[in-house]
Specification:
Elements lengths: L1 H13 L11 H20 L9 H11 L5 E8 L2 E8 L7 E6 L12 H17 L4 E6 L15 H7 L16 E5 L9 E3 L4 H14 L4 E4 L5 H6 L4 E5 L22 H23 L1
Parallel strand pairs: 3-4, 3-5, 5-8, 6-7
Antiparallel strand pairs: 1-2, 2-4, 6-8
Length: 287
């Protein structure tokens, strides 16, 4: 019985390794830790990042955190004023564009957008610095609407990019590069989901990648986020989002969206999901 007991304990000690962490590498975990540090640093440096006012300074901070080669600050005019997207396009043969917004919604006292904006901005910075993926990184200004999402309120950076505003830097729908938008993915209670109004084929790639990793990837329904302009303009694009933030989503767009709610583990799992999906897209690109 003692020998069987020892065998059972050995098996039980291995079982957790076969769960949701399968396929998540040490590099993914390093990226998750670095992403958390970058997100906290962004919030500390620029707690206010509302478009047209404080977002320009935040864009400059982001650009300085990226490798200098291939990094561009790309100003454009929009209803809130002068906005700035940041592009890091150093890889010579990208197979996708990873995007995140970095701005915060204005006129919410105490709102610093730790999860909503900073978490995935930190993740993109960490991926650009450490992961060496064959992708371009696009940091979008003006995602948040001031009143309600309309043709002239919200998603400004993504509309500008989707309509060819960064064509000179190689971002155009003719390139065929799919766009994966990441948003609100640092929550300790990690429940990522895919936008139903994203590209079906791209969603299929991401779901298969999640299955390989043992990550439960839910259905977010139709989401208004930065993938929408790209889809409307004929790009293949989708959105990964965790729109279940706090009890009944109570921390979204409130002063409760603070860095203490973030998790390196959630960001590590997102990094692993992105890496696995990019590997699949590389294979697709070679065929």
């Amino acid at each position: 019985m003692g020998r069987w007991r020892g065998l059972i304990l050995c098996v039980l000690s291995v079982v957790p390794l076969l769960g949701c962490d399968r396929g998540i590498t040490g590099r993914d975990r390093a990226v998750g830790e670095a992403a958390l540090a970058e997100a906290k640093a962004l919030v500390a440096a620029y707690p206010l990042r509302d478009a047209g006012r404080h977002s320009r300074e935040a864009a400059g901070w982001i650009a300085k955190r990226l490798p200098a080669e291939g990094t561009h600050m790309l100003p454009f005019d929009a209803p809130p004023g002068k906005l700035v997207n940041v592009l890091h396009a150093a890889h010579p043969a990208p197979v996708a564009i990873l995007a995140s917004h970095f701005d915060t919604k204005s006129d919410i006292p105490g709102f610093v957008g730790a999860n909503d904006g900073a978490s995935t901005t930190g993740l993109l910075i960490a991926l650009a610095r450490e992961a060496r993926l064959p992708v371009h990184y696009l940091f979008l200004d003006g995602e948040e609407c001031r009143v309600s999402y309309t043709a002239s309120d919200g998603l400004h950076g993504s509309w500008f990019a989707a309509r060819g505003g960064h064509r000179a830097q190689g971002l155009s729908k003719e390139s065929g590069l799919p766009v994966i938008v990441l948003d609100m993915l640092g929550d300790k209670d990690f429940t990522p989901a895919l936008a139903a109004n994203g590209s079906h084929t791209l969603n299929t790639v991401l779901r298969r990648a999640a299955e390989e990793l043992g990550i439960a990837l839910g259905d977010a329904g139709d989401v208004v986020d930065d993938h929408v302009p790209f889809v409307a303009e004929g790009w293949r694009a989708t959105d990964i989002i965790d729109f279940d933030y706090g009890p009944n989503n109570a921390w979204w767009h409130t002063a409760e969206d603070t860095p203490d709610k973030l998790s390196a583990e959630a960001l590590s799992q997102t990094a692993a999901l992105v890496r696995k999906a990019i590997t699949r897209l590389e294979k697709e690109h070679r065929q």
